[in-house]
Amino acid sequence: MMADADFEEDTPLSVGDRLAAEALIIDVDGYEGPLDLLLTLSRTQKVDLRKISVLALAEQYLKFINEAKDLRIELAADYLVMAAWLAFLKSRLLLPPDPNEEGPSGEELAAHLAFQLERLSAMREAAAKLMARDQLGRNFFVRGLPEDVTRIRRVTYTASLLDLMQAYARTRTKDEFRPFVMDRDAVMTLEQALERMRGLIGYAGDWTGLESYLPEGWETDPAKRRSATAANFAASLELAKIGQIEIRQGEVFAPIQIRKKARNDG
Amino acid sequence: MMAENTPNTENAEIGESLFEAPPMGEQERMVEAILFATTEPVTVKEMSERMPHGCDPAEAIVTLRKRYEGRGVNLVRVGDAWAIRTAADLGFLMQKETVETRKLSRAAIETLAIIAYHQPVTRAEIEEIRGVSVSRGTVDQLLEMEWIRFGRRRMTPGRPVTFVVTAEFLDHFGLENARDLPGLKELRSAGLLESRPPPGAMPGMPEADEEDPSVSQSEMFEE
Amino acid sequence: MMAENTPNTENAEIGESLFEAPPMGEQERMVEAILFATTEPVTVKEMSERMPHGCDPAEAIVTLRKRYEGRGVNLVRVGDAWAIRTAADLGFLMQKETVETRKLSRAAIETLAIIAYHQPVTRAEIEEIRGVSVSRGTVDQLLEMEWIRFGRRRMTPGRPVTFVVTAEFLDHFGLENARDLPGLKELRSAGLLESRPPPGAMPGMPEADEEDPSVSQSEMFEE
Fold first, then answer.
1. Domain C103-219 belongs to what architecture?
2. What are phi and psi of B84, to 5 degrees?
3. Which pLDDT tens digit goes with each residue over A7-25?
4. A186–chain B nearest CA distance, Å
5. What class, spelled out in words, does domain B2-94 have in CATH?
6. DSSP state of A249
7. Which of A37, A83, B49, B58 lies in disulfide reach of A31, CB 3.0 to 4.6 Å?
């Protein structure tokens, strides 16, 4: 990637440095962003990343950016952002700390940058170690002749004792126990009637016969009619009791009539 | 080529002098790995082409085959090649069963209930009680589940078979005995007899009962 | 399940009275056959579903694994599953079987490593570590290879998704689990796997990650 200055031992170091710097600049596209570039620059310090001089690194970076600018190399915005920030960091590191200033100190910022570099470097090493591992299909292999595992879908059926007893009850209620069965189809409950009538009484203005409140389909079948009438009657008593309607009957066995009770009727 | 496979020929010393063949244990490992990873049976020739100089895969196969004797997989010869195959008696493992649990159909549970309460009971009697014909599939299903089995034949004309419930049935429903099933009175007091009316009005006896018209009601419902 | 594996529990008689579990030697053969038959790792649960009632594949695996130690093929653990793989030192025999894996870019390899070592990790965290934005294509490629998958959402503002590595990843790199990653312990004790928030103003990502509003451009440049 870059010219390695070390292969020419006899060349003066300054020249080697210069070559390296030029190589860096020419390869600017080869960097994955400012952090990658900083990591590469930090290598030239030839020390443990934990002992790196962030100040020196900032200077190296700023120098790099300036040289790149002189060479009229287009630098992506993030390189310039990093340059600005490193210039700021450099001033913080050089100036004595201002006790009135908010925010992290220059040392804290430098320490974090060093941590970032160390972490990136560590992850790269880890990536290299990972890729150097024995790999499936390269160093070790799966069964070449796998056998088909046939999938069999088996359905099991289950039932509970309650199911069983209910089923039996169901079959037996068809005949001899039929008389004991309440035919729910033909039964209207008080609750059903109440709910229905509550919704309807508002619409009937004056006295209306209770029969007209029978739901549709319940007037013809005698059993249904009986049940619905009884339920409606009970419901109307209930509604009268809570003061929502009034009931009247002209004489014994005459039609029962109901009407909505006026709201403010004292 | 052949010389490498048969070290005892006059050419053997060429191979042996230049390369030390790996020990037989190593060769066995190699054959094992090759047979495992290759997508088709491998001939001895192919093996020796892939193995280091001086190896004798044929000999390795002999010992490796012994090693796999009686194991879950065996070394088998396929034509003039070799392969690793599942032991024949373990073929059943190459099936993956997925079990789905479903509720018994209404017809099945009713039929089962009638058999449990009236056993031994004939198909015609079941049909008479249910009021509809009992499909062959329903009975087969219950037989297959081993919840019912054939009982003794009824000593009536046509000698129809009867059905009874099995020990598996009792086990599943946690019953010691079919007589432990709650009687009609208890069902009624539990509210189970007042559940749901049949869709039609009072049904007469069904159309279905051609099998065994001889059984009398009295016989059927005595307890 | 457990009752079948540990015959001394109070539920044992249910399994034992009905079915006698096959002897351990037989169970070993069965596990052997199952593992030899497939390319994919098989979990203990899957094994016991395929084996007869009362079997304890976990125990069989222990002895079977010993049996294959140092052989041409080995029993390896992949997450909570098991597989047979050829011994890594015999890879040279398998040129024919070698599969060309798609060349991964440097960005993809680094991203993969970061996910493996830092999992569960958000895209923003990967970008923070690498110092550059992670292209959609990189993540897509790793997802497609089934080396990474989505983990649980992070309970931070924006609820960003996280990435974790898969069993396929472990299988490919011959890892029993993610804890066996090379150098993991050292990295952890060096504090390099901690997520350390940057102190105040640090130039973070080149582009703010819309997934993670906690790192916003405005925040980045104030002071």
1. Orthogonal Bundle (1.10)
2. -100, 130
3. 444 445 566 666 666 666 6
4. 11
5. mainly alpha
6. E
7. A37
